[in-house]
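Hi R.,

Here's the chain you asked about this morning:
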Amino acid sequence: KTRWDESHIEPDIKEGDLVCVSKVHFRNISSNPKFRDFFIEPFLVLRLVGMNAVEVAPHGPFSRRHPVFPVSLIEIYGKKMI
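And here is the predicted structure, written out as tokens:
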């Protein structure tokens, strides 16, 4: 645990930020996975759900999805995204 504490960085996500969500669990996006982007378009953060989850405002084709995602699948928009 001490090794994890030394290298752990708390996510710097606040309400009102724009974030991109990882497409890891989105299986219904039809295209070749080799050429697909890793992250979905930016969404607005509505609120933080505890320390490990974020509620976003989904729009467009993603509006029917559940709006809460873990911070491990979130990247701040504008940061270097793979």
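One quick note: Helices lie at 2-7.

Cheers,
M.
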